[in-house]
Write a structure and sequence with these properties.
With 144 residues, this protein is mostly beta strands. 4% of the residues lie in helices and 34% in strands. The chain contains 1 helix and 9 strands; from the N terminus they run E-E-E-E-E-E-E-E-E-H. The strands form 3 sheets. Strands 1-8-3-6 form a 4-stranded antiparallel beta sheet, with no helix packed on it. The longest helix is centred in the last third of the chain and has 6 residues.
């Protein structure tokens, strides 16, 4: 963690140790937010082996943190990767397809917390049709 992101607040009257603050992730540059965005934070718990949500997109950026287990994470144009407990992820939203957010574990639950910035009056998650997936097939990174 750089000193620009370190935090320590003096509290002379305190009788307990100060909180420990660790930087988990940063996103360079401010991602664009929808005008009048609504921020919502949800906890997603995936049963063992769950495929997660079908391919979808969000109306604004999303920032997440895996609290338990491992998830398979794949965005349009990026190779799929495994995000483990204690690690963070983000996606820009808007037109980018989120292909996978499934449980990488066949024998245990996985869970993540995600904060999404949604356009007013828009659903937080919009499924992508099979036709659109086919039309954009060339934008998907090669699969393992």
């Amino acid at each position: 963690m750089s000193t620009a992101h370190s935090h320590h607040l003096e509290n002379p009257g305190s009788t307990t140790p100060p909180p420990r603050i660790d930087l988990v992730a940063t996103v360079p540059g401010a991602p664009p937010m929808p005008a009048g965005a609504e921020a919502m934070t949800i906890l997603v718990t995936l049963p063992p082996g769950s495929e997660g949500a079908p391919p979808h997109r969000h109306s604004g950026p999303a920032f997440g943190y895996v609290v338990k287990g491992e998830i398979i994470f794949e965005l349009e144009g990026e190779p799929q990767r495994v995000v483990k407990a204690g690690e963070a992820f983000w996606e820009p939203g808007y037109d980018v397809i989120h292909y996978q957010d499934g449980n990488n574990l066949a024998d245990a639950e996985s869970a993540f917390v995600v904060t999404m910035f949604c356009a007013p009056g828009q659903p937080m998650l919009v499924p992508v049709s099979a036709e659109e997936l086919e039309q954009r097939r060339d934008r998907r990174a090669p699969r393992p």
